[in-house]
Amino acid sequence: MDYNTLLQILDTAVRFATPLLFACLAGLYSERSGVFDIGLEGKMLIAAMCAGAVAALSGSAWLGLLAGIGGALVFALIHGVTSITFRGNQLISGVALNFLASGLTVLVAQRLFQQGGRTPPISGEARFNPITLPFAEEARQIPLIGPFYAEVISGHAILVYLAFASVALTWWALYRTRFGLRLRAVGENPAAVDTAGISVTRLRFTALLITGVLCGLAGAYMATALQAGFGKEMTAGRGYIALAALIFAKWRPIAAMWACLLFGFFQALALRPDVVEWMVRVKVPVPFLDALPYMLTVFVLAGFVGKAIPPRAGGEPYVKER
Amino acid sequence: MAADLVEGRPAAAAPFAIELKGISKAFGPVQANKDINFAVPKGTIHGIIGENGAGKSTLMSILYGFYKADAGQILINGQLTAIPDSQAAIRAGIGMVFQHFKLVQNFSVLENVVLGAEDGALLGPSLRKARAELQRLSREYELDVDPDALIEDLSVGHQQRVEILKALYRQADILILDEPTGVLTPAEADHLFRILHGLKAQGKTIILITHKLREIMEATDHVSVMRRGTMVATVKTAETGPEALAELMVGRKVLLEVEKPPARPGEVVLDLQDLRVKDEHGVERLKGVSLQIRAGEILGIAGVAGNGQSELLAALGGMMKATGTALLNGAPLPLSGRGADGQSRRHAGIAHVPEDRQHYGLILDFTAWENVAFGYADDPKYQANALFLSNEALRADTARKMETFDVRPPDPWLAAKNFSGGNQQKLVVAREFEQNPKLLLVGQPTRGVDIGAIEFIHNQLIALRDAGAAILLVSVELDEIMSLSDRIAVMFDGRIMGTRDPATTDERELGLMMAGMTAKGEAA
Fold first, then answer.
1. How does pLDDT run across B19-58, given as a tens digit for each residue?
2. How many domains does chain A fold into?
3. ipTM value of the model?
4. What gap in Å lies between CA A215 and CA A212, rounded to an integer?
5. Is the CATH code 3.10.50.30 the one for domain B268-360+438-514?
6. What phi and psi values does residue B72 have, to the nearest 5 degrees?
7. Is A308 at the interface with chain B, CB within 8 A?
8. Residues of A with CB below 8 A from B166's CB?
């Protein structure tokens, strides 16, 4: 395998890692606040459909993005109302939302476009197109770093850069701001937050709204940047992989980025059976390669990562004592 | 407003820090607080005592903004103050140290102190300010804790100091402490009271909720007694005594000292040699415990919670594997493998009142008669025929036990969770004591049990001893150990530090041993 092939795979890995990263950070906010969110998948899916449909109808990727965020926010709010306001079971609420998204997206897309639950292919302004960073072409002359900059760093949709910026922003918010302190506290011991005179409910809803926005970005990226339009079940379990990455990263933003890049790398590798064959000297069936990221998820969740301690109050509705 | 209270106290200061007028609060049909009137003079320590369910916690929750009173007024420093939420209570200068600490375990001391009292959206400046402020407070009040230590690494005594620091950092002028000494060693408790006196000297007002009459007598200036939602009396501490207070609390005369005839120890029932227990992480929790208990005597195990007492009970009760040798009436008692389970222990004549009755003693959703059957359902007297249990026999037996042990209400059909803590404990005690065990294991027999029920359970323990049972009593309440035991063994770090005769030892000596020091004061 030559350097160029590696760069191509890394470039694809970054693209594949982006929706995982958005979803993973989305889960981070929710779970750090003490609300488990297995519904990342559903939120991504509804966002992808909203974004794809609005982009197709309006011809604007940005309007599509807004619609995607809107759709995911509605789902996040439903999750908030069931699991925070009415103290319902967070897993059941999340699973129900996943089913709802799975059915609703196809239904609406079919009703709107009559194309078997797909949106029409979109192009041009309706998509987020790759942007070339300054000096990308000139930099190619520099050995090693130059091509890396031109191939892997440059040439992505704006949302990719936003995803990586969100990692830094999340780290900063989590560890350097008042909001972050309270967010971390409410997921560990909501009673401590409550007795300090802060509303647990408001804090958790705020976290869920951020989760909604980030899931919206994840879904919109799927439909209007990674691919050209919404397709049935297009998220294909990425919400769950993002959850696995979150556990892998032990609920920390920087580690989450590396975890998502790793999962993205495996997804990218699955597209290059020739490279895999060269690496292991055995012809590996393509379906096996496709399954690789999912198998990795199983290994991760089976405790391969060692002891991952979730936020202590996670999954528990907060009921004021005495 | 909070700042005014601290810095520029008005010249004509109101005499009372807190004054409650006609506070009432009902939860459905239950009147938790009925027309409560009381006032706490500034700069004093005011005790509140009462049995469980007397309404102390409800009253304090109203003061801290957790509940809204149905009627009545709250005056803080002579000013009518509404307290709709905890934020308002904090603004009014009220700080609360809960019985169960409200700390974030994996945060540093500094982060816990700052949480909710940040100065701006960014953390940096708040943390810097808090660090300086903590240094000042710890110098002033003996409240030294490492600001960068994680809460989970601190002892409970230090965690409690963090709670006090939290309140002081929020410029609390009135400090409410709910059962503050329940989890402390005697030395830590002494330190706490020194801190409280220091705070009082600085003009802070302190409300101390406790059920320990000795602490009330030692630490407070005034004391209010609550019974069934009403404030039955407020008296100067110097003008009352423990017996009078206990009578006010319960509404009848209570014997505080357990009356017990001298023990007449018989044969050795339990002989333990070199008992060792490892927990699920492979950490050794019992490091070679050897002891003997004779028929007709109570061996009390004193110690701060977490020094191996629980593992001792669990190993003997068949809940944990152990190594070493154990003889019960001269016959070997298996410590692991076959015959080392709870059921075999029961057949061997060992009864166990576990420390945590809600997790190990009862199934809370099951009825009283089902709970009384647990562990003993194979008793021949409960069998209807070869296949079926006789529920009627069980219910009749339960009704009889409930009467003997004064369980209220005496309804075998009531779910265990619907009994008060004291009556739940009486249910467990009734089940285990009535087996006439050769060896009785008792953990924390009166934790969360009110004073009337404590008296009852203590008397039952003595009666069982005089009937010839060997009793192993584990309790974190030193008073209980001292008054019930015929011999006291002190545990520290998985070992027995020594055995003392209650007649010739005192709390100071036991306290030192509980902290891992020998009587002469050197570390073991």
1. 999 999 988 777 889 999 989 999 999 999 987 778 888 8
2. 1
3. 0.90
4. 5
5. no
6. 110, 170
7. no
8. 196
